[in-house]
Design brief:
Pathway: Amino-acid biosynthesis; L-histidine biosynthesis; L-histidine from 5-phospho-alpha-D-ribose 1-diphosphate: step 5/9
Family: Belongs to the HisA/HisF family.
Number of helices: 10
InterPro entries: Aldolase_TIM (IPR013785), His_biosynth (IPR006062), HisF (IPR004651), IGPS_HisA/HisF (IPR050064), RibuloseP-bd_barrel (IPR011060)
Radius of gyration: 17 Å
Structural class: alpha/beta
Enzyme class: lyase
Strand order of the largest sheet: 1-4-5-6-7-10-11-12
Oligomer: single chain
Organism: Pedobacter xixiisoli
């Protein structure tokens, strides 16, 4: 028997947004600035006790190219924790190449919206736990709408119904990024995260808006998500993962220390 969902350790996941071989970070998906060497950062996070690492090649889809395999291999060599990779994955062969380069899971976003069967194909080929569907959402005219190509393109899909469909097709996990909160450091979109989490049976990773340790406590307490992901607060050393886990533990949130 598995542990009830609320007993499982909550995961802390640093995210490396990579462009031209460097880690970058912006606000609301624009104004990118340099945040360091992805290989060095990955090694640092593994040592600090991160539970997983996500690597997103953020311009791969927009620039219509594949994720940088060599860099993925270099990062994977630094890690002893699960490693998720996204960016430019459009077919099984792409996923296979990343698996061989050291990925434990892959994250698909634009390609899944354009061809939802891809979720099903990947889940059948590699197993449900391997497929993370990333969703970039923005509040437009009173509704949460799915955006593609690193947030550059609005779709006609409502976020809640797309996530439900992704789960039905075989997504093992949802990585939900609020574009309105991204990089603002004003906190996660707990209302939306709770609403979606209450309606699906697969894990949800909260992304967009982390600015303080309290924000992590809040997203676990209010939305009961399975994991929280952040970038700049970790990259620039504003929050250290061991400190964050101690703080969560003090607030009775189960974490792996």
């Amino acid at each position: 028997m598995t542990e009830p969902n609320n007993m499982l350790s909550k995961r802390i996941i640093p995210c490396l947004d990579v462009k031209d071989g460097r880690t970058v970070k912006g606000v609301n998906f624009v104004d990118l600035r340099d945040a360091g060497d992805p290989v060095e950062l990955a090694a640092q996070y593994a040592q600090q006790g991160a539970d997983e690492l996500v690597f997103l090649d953020i311009t791969a889809t927009h620039e219509r190219r594949k994720t940088m395999i060599e860099m993925v291999k270099s990062v994977a060599r630094q890690l002893n924790i699960p490693f998720t990779i996204g960016g430019g994955i459009t077919e099984i062969a792409d996923a296979e190449a990343l698996l061989n380069a050291g990925a434990d899971k892959i994250s698909i976003n634009s390609a899944a919206v354009r061809r939802p069967e891809l979720i099903e194909e990947l889940a059948k080929a590699f197993g449900v736990q391997f497929v993370v569907v990333a969703v970039d959402t923005k509040y437009v005219d009173g509704r949460n709408m799915v955006h593609l190509n690193g947030g550059r393109l609005i779709t006609e899909l409502q976020t809640e119904s797309w996530i439900k469909q992704a789960e039905e097709l075989g997504a093992g996990e949802i990585l939900l990024t609020s574009m309105d909160h991204d990089g603002t450091k004003a906190g996660f979109d707990c209302g939306l995260l709770k609403k979606i989490n209450d309606n699906i049976n697969i894990p949800i990773i909260a992304s967009g808006g982390a600015g303080s340790m309290e924000h992590f406590t809040e997203v676990f307490q209010k939305a009961n998500v399975d994991a929280a992901l952040a970038a700049s607060v970790f990259h620039y050393g504003e929050i250290l993962i061991p400190d964050l886990k101690q703080e969560l533990s003090r607030n009775n949130i189960p974490v792996r220390i």
